Amino acid sequence: PIYIKPIQSVIGARESYLYSILLSKYLNKNNDFDILHTTGALFYLARRKDKYSCGSGKTIVEVYDLESVYDVNPLKLIIKRVGYNVIGYYWLFKRSLDNADKIIVEDPVQRGKLLNFHSRIRDKIEYLPTGVDIETIEDISSKSSLDRSNYGFHENDFIIASVNRFYEHKGLNYLIDAFKIIKDKIKNAKLLLIGNSGPYLANILTQIGRLGLK
């Protein structure tokens, strides 16, 4: 495997321009593949059908972590579309989808939002749900010495756990609203949020305080 270290774009696009450019150059020189499964080769895909690209393998794109481009409300979409068009990112993403052989989505909701963004890709979309290996989880759990008391929980607590980065598009605000309803009906319910200190953390803490769920 060849690893190219992603560098966060100074212009704020979630997908680093520099990373995608470096990857494009690498793939154009090393394109003897049958299938390319990618989430970050946007520049390569955008150029794939022009005279500079000579890759012949099939390319499958998984639209992972690109919700900031296609999954926004109408007002934000107008603002973001103007901004992304100025830097070329909006055009780049659409052209990349046009040039991909297949586009992978995790569920029908993601498919609907993607088609709302770019309807011409309808026939390319395929479902690939995220899998969970239950046997591996059970094996790790059986070897763990941790129990509820390690986290300050009681044995009879009804615990819901969520593992996510603290970003707006992860929808944790909906989870917290839903948990408020659960808490009103199940008094011993507890919500465990596991994640990093992302940019949306302050909003999450404010919502938790406003709903009296501290």
List keywords for this structure.
alpha/beta, 9 helices, single chain, 214 residues
What would a concise description of this structure say?
With 214 residues, the protein is α/β, with parallel strands linked by helices.
Number of strands: 6
Radius of gyration: 21 Å
Give a quick account of the main beta sheet: strands, pairing sense, barrel closure: 4 strands, parallel
Low-confidence stretches: 6-15
Give the class from helix and strand content and strand pairing: alpha/beta
Strand content: 5-15%
User: Averaging pLDDT over every residue, what do you get?
Assistant: 79
The neighbouring-strand order within the major sheet is 1-2-3-4
Cα shape: globular
Terminal Cα span: 45 Å
- Give the SSE order as H and E letters: HEHEHHHEHEHEHEH
Helix content: 40-55%
Count up the helices.
Answer: 9
Question: How does this model look, in words?
Answer:
By secondary structure, this protein is α/β, with parallel strands linked by helices. The protein is built from 9 helices and 6 strands, in the order αβαβαααβαβαβαβα. It has helices spanning 17-29, 42-47, 67-70, 74-87, 89-99, 108-117, 134-143, 172-185, 201-210, and strands at residues 35-38, 58-62, 102-105, 125-127, 158-163, 189-194. The strands form 2 sheets. Strands 1-2-3-4 form a 4-stranded parallel sheet. Strands 5-6 form a two-stranded parallel ribbon. α2 links the parallel β1 (35-38) and β2 (58-62).
